[in-house]
């Protein structure tokens, strides 16, 4: 109990310390650790990753024996690979190993299993600091690094089966592994020599920690080994490494130990300490002279910051050097000190330490974060210093030591200061010091904290102090706030925050803030959306308001009662201005210095009619004017704001135009004009636009430069009067969502970019024509997941046929991709739908029924127990007059599932109003396929009866048709090849008679006419759909057996 109360009071007293950690985390300067993190539960010394056929016979056996003789506990999985998914036990073994020994053999990359192992190993290295030792067994390291030779051949095959994200992950893992220091079999005369070197390296890594512990350096051994591996002298390019973390964590110590252990391998070396401090004292040019004098071995006089004397460049260019630049605080220091990599000879290495990760971004090849010590490491370090390895004292003072460890937050320098401070002291002195630390740290600890505080820039120091004061002010009760506002406070007040509801119609003096000259945070907030009714609390200023304190940084005042901000108020320091539901008509009447302002929020300010000139608000990022219903004009200065990212003008119903003739915004990413019903003119574009909402507007066309917004991901024009979309829309290759619901004037849809996943054209009653890419190969590039043409009844016949074929390509592609993901990821969680007007089940679905609520399909027993099957459905949904949001499907497979309540429930979207005619609803649902797979496997007969029922709201519907297609992932490669082949032919999808898919019969061959006239297309467009029938592919029937698949 005492232990708990100590830390509760300590946390309150040390809010400053917490704030410092918060600011450093924002800068990227400190990690976190906890007692439970201490050394992940290591079960194995070594995890061995290998390609069985390459090394299983001979070498692997000798390696296992050698590890065993040396008492090195290794995990070696000698099972034959089965399936695509790595067993969880294997992943667990990787995570529970101190070292991963990766044997990169000629056929290693031909196994996706090996590549998945390697990706996990690299992940453990980067996240947990696992050591990785690559062994290049009969393969050149450059072949691995750049995927050449047998590795290139392997990836040609992998790319046919796996998606690009997975491929790139594997390539990156190989490159990162090959960049590490490793062993190459060709440098040893035989396997015995290589085995000896492997054992030697493994033992060295295992002994690293013990070596440094004996020297008093706790928790550093693994970090040193990792960095030494990164240096990899085998790589000939000049490499730069960054070490970063907050002050006091041991970056300098780590860099020195690495430097000291490898410097003998280099022709020149220099450890330049305290660059930050010494450059301020001596000047950066002095440090530059010191650096190059030490590397060259003679006194140099370099006068300028740019470049080096020619003779120095020539000499350095022939030398392999190692340099450490310690405690760099500014990118300019790096630029002056080492200039360019071309100055140094091949295989040179440069290590830079810094408290600020941002300093390292542009110059380094990789970074290593020094994190606080784990609890066990902290305790070991503290005990070493405080008790000098006297175990009886460690036990006697254990509880007090734990309090110190919690206080020090894993920072070695703080642990050392406190350890030396308490060494040899009696228990009463320990208790006394710990009590003092509750309210004030010792001078030495203060100095350690000051290391990181001094690292903050001016603005960050201000933020730190503001946050600290803000947290100190959080404990004010309702009565305290009222008393404070009535008595007008004092200059000691830094922050006031309270829920408006608590203040109950409090009247304030016009001088309420006059004594609070240091007030920086003022927050009178109200919960809930601004358009909801007021929650009851309010503040009144019957005599007006004289001013706010000029120090104010954060101002949020819901239901602000004045028509403008006080005339005497200077907004120079204001960062956030939020006045939701205010009575403001105009923010201010005089010019303001707004250089600090970042965010403006005036949502639901229904009296606001105009905005002031924001020309000097150069740092504003967000402007929120939602539901400012009387706003009729946006000041042109808004379009000159180079950092503005978010502009929300939704439901500004008096706004008639938003145009910018002189400024093409660069920074704007999110623009919403939703509900601006009077808006007729719109010409704003931005090269960084991500999301654009023009719902319920009166615009008829998009700006001429619309197609230049290449980063646009989401475009919504719901219920707008848009008449056409520009052809340039197809160039928006990042567009993921296009919502055109109820665009009643839209007549033609141009060719769209392939990356759109969600396309909603519901209720476009004038839409006649939809254009698609002309070849199947081009349509295969599309990524459609959800396409809706509900109630688009004006579509012409040609367009409906094109839509049907596009639906087939997209839904089949999606199903195959999902099945491929299932093989690698082991789970299914995806769905694709495609809806368009129509009354017939598409012919490529081999099992079809024109009425009824069930359909029977063949169960492919040759693959059901080895493959995951995918089920594509087509439902012919009838006209529905009633309203509703969803179609609720119940799908059962065989037996009495439906009666027993075990059916699969599926909810699919529908138009909210009526469904005006029959529609084809194509659907692939991964979870549904999973359910039907399990039902198929439980059947004793070679068929499966699928029952389907559907209701809209509470109204049961009778489907006018059901179609099913069943298949597995084995044919995905064949499908892609068919698409690629079509892309090489002179025919297009819209040539006759291919496109019309005539079902006329040839009496001699019992095949469709176009199959005899165009045999090269027969397998693609025939009654077998996109694939010929094979042993375990998409299941279909020959034309002669159509009656067995078309049920009634």
From TrEMBL:
Domain TIR: 42-206
InterPro entries registered for this protein in UniProt: Apaf_helical (IPR042197), Disease_R_plants (IPR044974), LRR_dom_sf (IPR032675), NB-ARC (IPR002182), P-loop_NTPase (IPR027417), TIR_dom (IPR000157), Toll_tir_struct_dom_sf (IPR035897)
Keywords in alphabetical order: Signal
Leader peptide range in chain numbering: 1-31
Domain of life, source organism: Eukaryota
PANTHER family named in the record: LEUCINE-RICH REPEAT-CONTAINING PROTEIN, RESISTANCE PROTEIN (TIR-NBS-LRR CLASS), PUTATIVE-RELATED
Protein name per Swiss-Prot or TrEMBL: TIR domain-containing protein
Organism: Stylosanthes scabra
Source species taxonomy: Eukaryota, Viridiplantae, Streptophyta, Embryophyta, Tracheophyta
């Amino acid at each position: 109990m005492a232990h708990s109360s100590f830390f509760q009071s300590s946390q309150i007293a040390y809010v400053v310390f917490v704030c410092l950690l918060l600011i450093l985390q924002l800068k990227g300067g400190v990690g976190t650790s906890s007692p439970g993190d201490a050394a992940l539960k290591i079960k194995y010394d070594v995890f061995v990753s290998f390609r069985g056929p390459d090394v299983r016979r001979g070498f692997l056996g000798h390696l296992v024996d050698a590890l065993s003789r040396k008492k090195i506990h290794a995990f070696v999985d000698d099972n034959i690979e089965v399936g695509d998914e790595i067993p969880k036990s294997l992943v667990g073994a990787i995570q529970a190993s101190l070292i991963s020994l990766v044997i990169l053999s000629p056929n290693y990359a031909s196994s996706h299993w090996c590549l998945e192992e390697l990706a996990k190993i690299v992940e453990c290295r980067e996240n947990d600091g696992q050591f990785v030792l690559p062994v290049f067994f009969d393969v050149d390291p450059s072949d691995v690094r750049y995927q050449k030779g047998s590795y290139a051949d392997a990836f040609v095959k992998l790319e046919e089966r796996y998606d690009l994200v997975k491929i790139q992950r594997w390539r990156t893992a190989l490159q990162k592994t090959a960049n590490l220091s490793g062993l190459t079999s060709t440098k040893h005369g035989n396997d015995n020599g290589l085995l000896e070197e492997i054992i030697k390296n493994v033992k060295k890594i295992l002994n690293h920690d013990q070596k440094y512990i004996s020297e008093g350096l706790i928790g550093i051994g693994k970090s040193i080994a990792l960095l030494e591996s990164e240096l990899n002298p085998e790589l000939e390019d000049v490499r730069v490494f960054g070490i970063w973390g907050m002050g006091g964590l041991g970056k300098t110590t780590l860099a020195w130990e690495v430097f000291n252990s490898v410097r003998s391998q280099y022709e020149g070396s220099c450890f330049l300490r305290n660059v930050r401090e010494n450059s301020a004292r001596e000047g950066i040019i002095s440090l530059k002279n010191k650096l190059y004098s030490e590397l060259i071995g003679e006194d140099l006089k370099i006068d300028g910051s740019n470049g080096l004397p020619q003779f120095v460049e020539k000499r350095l260019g022939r030398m392999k050097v190692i340099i450490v630049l310690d405690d760099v605080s500014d990118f300019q220091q790096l630029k002056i000190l080492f200039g360019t990599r071309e100055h140094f000879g091949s295989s040179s290495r440069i290590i830079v330490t810094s408290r600020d990760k941002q300093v390292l971004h542009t110059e380094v090849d990789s970074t290593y974060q020094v994190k606080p010590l784990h609890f066990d490491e902290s305790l070991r370090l503290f005990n070493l210093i405080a008790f000098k390895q006297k175990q009886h004292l460690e036990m006697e003072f254990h509880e007090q030591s734990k309090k110190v460890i919690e206080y020090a937050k894993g920072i070695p320098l703080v642990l050392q200061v406190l350890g030396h401070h308490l060494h040899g002291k009696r228990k009463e002195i320990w208790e006394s010091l710990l009590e003092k630390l509750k309210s004030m740290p010792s001078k030495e600890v203060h100095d350690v904290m000051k290391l990181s505080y001094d690292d903050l820039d001016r603005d960050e120091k201000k933020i730190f102090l503001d946050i600290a004061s803000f947290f100190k002010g959080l404990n004010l009760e309702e009565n305290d706030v009222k008393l404070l506002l009535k008595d007008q406070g004092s200059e000691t007040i830094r922050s006031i925050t309270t829920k408006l509801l608590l203040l109950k119609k409090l009247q304030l003096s016009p001088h309420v803030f006059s004594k609070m000259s240091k007030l920086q945070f003022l927050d009178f907030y109200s919960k809930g959306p601004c358009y909801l009714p007021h929650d009851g609390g309010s503040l009144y200023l019957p005599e007006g308001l004289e001013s706010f304190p000029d120090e104010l940084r954060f101002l949020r005042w819901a239901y602000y009662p004045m028509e403008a901000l006080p005339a005497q108020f200077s907004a120079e320091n204001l960062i956030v201005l939020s006045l939701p539901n205010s009575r403001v008509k105009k923010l201010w009447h005089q010019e303001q210095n707004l250089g600090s302002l970042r965010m403006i929020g005036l949502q639901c300010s229904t009296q606001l009619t105009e905005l002031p000139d924001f020309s000097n608000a150069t740092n504003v990022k967000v402007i929120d004017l939602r539901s400012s219903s009387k706003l009729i004009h946006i000041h042109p200065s808004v379009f000159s704001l180079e950092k503005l990212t978010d502009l929300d003008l939704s439901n500004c119903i008096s706004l008639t135009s938003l145009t910018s003739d002189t400024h093409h915004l660069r920074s704007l990413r999110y623009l919403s004009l939703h509900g601006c019903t009077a808006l007729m003119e719109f010409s704003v574009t931005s090269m960084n636009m991500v999301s654009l909402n023009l719902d319920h507007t009166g615009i008829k066309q998009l700006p001429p430069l619309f197609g230049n917004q290449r980063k646009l991901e989401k475009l919504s024009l719901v219920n707008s009067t848009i008449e056409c979309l520009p052809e340039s829309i197809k160039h928006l290759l990042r567009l993921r969502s296009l919502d055109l619901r109820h665009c009643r004037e839209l007549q033609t849809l141009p060719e769209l970019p392939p990356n759109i996943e969600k396309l909603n054209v519901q209720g476009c009653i004038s839409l006649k024509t939809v254009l698609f890419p002309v070849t199947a190969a081009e349509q295969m590039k599309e990524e459609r997941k959800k396409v809706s043409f509900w109630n688009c009844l004006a579509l012409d016949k040609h367009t409906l046929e094109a839509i049907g074929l596009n639906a087939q390509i997209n839904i089949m592609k999606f199903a195959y991709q999902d099945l491929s993901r299932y093989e690698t990821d082991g789970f299914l969680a995806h769905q694709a739908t495609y809806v368009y007007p129509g009354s017939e089940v598409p012919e490529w679905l081999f099992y079809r029924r024109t009425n009824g609520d069930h359909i029977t399909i063949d169960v492919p027993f040759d693959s059901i127990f080895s493959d995951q099957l995918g089920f594509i459905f087509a439902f012919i949904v009838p006209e529905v007059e009633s309203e509703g949001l969803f179609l609720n499907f119940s799908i059962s497979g065989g037996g009495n599932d439906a009666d027993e309540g075990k059916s699969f429930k599926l909810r699919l979207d529908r138009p909210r109003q009526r469904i005006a005619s029959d529609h084809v609803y194509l659907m692939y649902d991964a979870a549904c396929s999973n359910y039907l797979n399990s039902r198929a496997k439980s059947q004793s007969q070679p068929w499966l009866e699928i029952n389907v029922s559907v209701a809209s709201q509470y109204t049961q519907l009778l489907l006018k048709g059901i179609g099913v297609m069943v298949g597995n992932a084995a044919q995905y490669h064949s499908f892609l090849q068919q698409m690629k082949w079509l892309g090489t032919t002179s025919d297009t999808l819209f040539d006759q008679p291919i496109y019309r898919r005539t079902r006329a019969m040839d009496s001699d061959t019992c095949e469709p006419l176009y199959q005899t006239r165009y045999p090269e297309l027969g397998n693609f467009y025939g009654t077998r759909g996109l694939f010929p029938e094979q042993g375990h592919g998409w299941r279909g029937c020959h034309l002669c057996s159509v009656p067995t698949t078309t049920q009634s």
